[in-house]
Inverse folding.
């Protein structure tokens, strides 16, 4: 980030505005909305600007700016159409170390103003760092339509209850939980519908009974998808944002992890191929222990938790210990990689079924039952198949599958670094040999792979 986002208190503070035209008027309006006292200096001043400023206790001076005018002002805005004047305001302000914004000129400024969605006291500010103000404004329009106007009332309601809630709940964890329940539940619905009195009554009741806050921990076993954060489900995102602690492993992308609540504790429980077994029991136990401490535990797993994710084992122990949990499906690597690589897993002309198989080797060999995998109309998707790839392809051929069967290896599917290697089962191993391929990779075998050359252009560019 090039800028530190912050909200600055200008209430009843004199701020200097140099310029008297329409742009200056807009700036004066936003300063006055934040209760600043505005002092305008310009040889010509728009009458609406003058009236507004005077009405709100400010003053106007019809004259040219002088560097000494900066005086003790802490915040200065230059909104003239004269480059030289803007420059001189900027350098005088910089010399005095005050906050200076020259409209539409980030180089001359040390702060820039965001596009704002005003649901006072709730403010959403958006910035493109001065690089694409129109984009920021478009985003503002979208958020405007998403955030009901009455959100401000909801925030005010929160403000009125803040102290009371603090007195009832001493721990920040319980307070947060109270608010999360209140702001997602019936009190919020009442406030948003304009029934503030009823909302207040209900909140007070909940506060008196302590009912809305349970100290029972729970576990969310959440599928994080294959990498691109856009592929998360709404529910995954919601739970990610309310969990107290996040357990994640190697497959969860940074972009996804960044969406978890900022102050949630993050625990890396990454697994390597060799030390699976021991660690898995430790993870199962950790989930139980954390939940017993009353925490809301998010177990974030790459792809879908129930597809080669050992999700079943993790919740088994929770179930035995009576700990509440929920499982949120995710987009599994097969779906994500296939879509982003332009390889439909089934197709009327090419494949009537698809099979997900683990290519994980035991004692250096895959213990897959190959005679079941020879149907030319079945697509095979191997997870964890990179190390065993030469063996898998060779054994398919040995058992009688056509050596010309197309095969694709997709590396880091759905992420920006996605690479797709297409060949046949007889030469894929050779093709990737010198390519420095790293996991995670997914192996797709079957006629559908031939569609890649035709369809891969039309797939969304992965982000994150
Ligand atoms: N539960 C996960 C799979 C876990 S097994 C899911 O549903 O996707 C781990 C294997 O998944 C990796 O070895 C790899 O084969 C595959 N995989 C996961 N993410 C992937 C990605 N972004 N690109 C390619 N393969 C991926």
């Amino acid at each position: 980030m090039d800028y530190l986002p912050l909200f600055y208190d200008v209430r009843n503070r004199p701020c200097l505005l140099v310029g008297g035209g329409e742009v200056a008027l807009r700036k004066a309006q936003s300063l006055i909305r934040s209760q600043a006292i505005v002092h305008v200096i310009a040889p010509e001043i728009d009458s609406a600007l003058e009236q507004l400023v005077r009405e709100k206790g400010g003053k106007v001076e019809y004259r040219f700016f002088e560097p000494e005018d900066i005086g003790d002002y802490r915040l200065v805005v230059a909104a003239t159409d004269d480059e030289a004047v803007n420059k001189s305001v900027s350098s005088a302000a910089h010399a005095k170390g005050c906050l200076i914004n020259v409209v539409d000129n980030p180089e001359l400024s040390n702060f820039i103003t965001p596009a704002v969605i005003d649901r006072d006291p709730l403010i959403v500010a958006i910035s493109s760092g001065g690089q694409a103000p129109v984009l920021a404004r478009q985003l503002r329009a979208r958020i405007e339509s998403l955030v009901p106007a009455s959100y401000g009332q909801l925030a005010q309601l929160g403000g009125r209850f803040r102290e009371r809630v603090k007195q009832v709940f001493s721990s920040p964890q319980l307070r947060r939980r109270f608010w999360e329940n209140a702001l997602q539940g019936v009190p919020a619905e009442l406030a948003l519908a304009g029934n503030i009195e009823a909302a207040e009554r209900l909140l007070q009741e909940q506060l008196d009974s302590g009912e809305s806050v349970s100290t029972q921990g729970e576990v969310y076993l959440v599928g994080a998808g294959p990498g691109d954060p856009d592929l998360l489900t709404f529910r995954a995102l919601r739970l990610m944002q309310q969990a107290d602690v996040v357990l994640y492993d190697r497959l969860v992308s940074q972009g996804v992890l960044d969406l978890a609540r900022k102050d949630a504790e993050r625990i890396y429980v990454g697994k390597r191929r060799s030390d699976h077994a021991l660690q898995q029991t430790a993870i199962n136990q950790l989930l139980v222990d954390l939940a017993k401490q009353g925490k809301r535990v998010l177990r974030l797993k790459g792809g879908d938790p129930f597809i080669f994710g050992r999700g079943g084992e993790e919740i088994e122990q929770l179930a035995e210990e009576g700990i509440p949990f929920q499982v949120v499906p995710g987009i599994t690597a097969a779906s994500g990689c296939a879509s982003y690589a332009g390889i439909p897993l089934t197709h009327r002309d090419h494949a009537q079924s698809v099979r997900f198989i683990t290519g994980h080797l035991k004692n250096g060999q895959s213990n897959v039952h190959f005679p079941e995998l020879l149907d030319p109309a079945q697509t095979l998707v191997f997870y964890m198949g990179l190390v065993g790839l030469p063996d898998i392809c060779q054994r398919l051929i040995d058992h009688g599958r056509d050596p010309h069967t197309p095969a694709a290896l997709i590396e880091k599917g759905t992420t920006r670094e996605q690479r797709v290697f297409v060949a046949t089962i007889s030469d894929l191993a050779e093709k990737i040999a010198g390519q420095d391929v790293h996991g995670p990779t997914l192996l797709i075998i079957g006629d559908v792979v031939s569609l890649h050359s035709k369809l891969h252009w039309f797939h969304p560019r992965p982000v994150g």
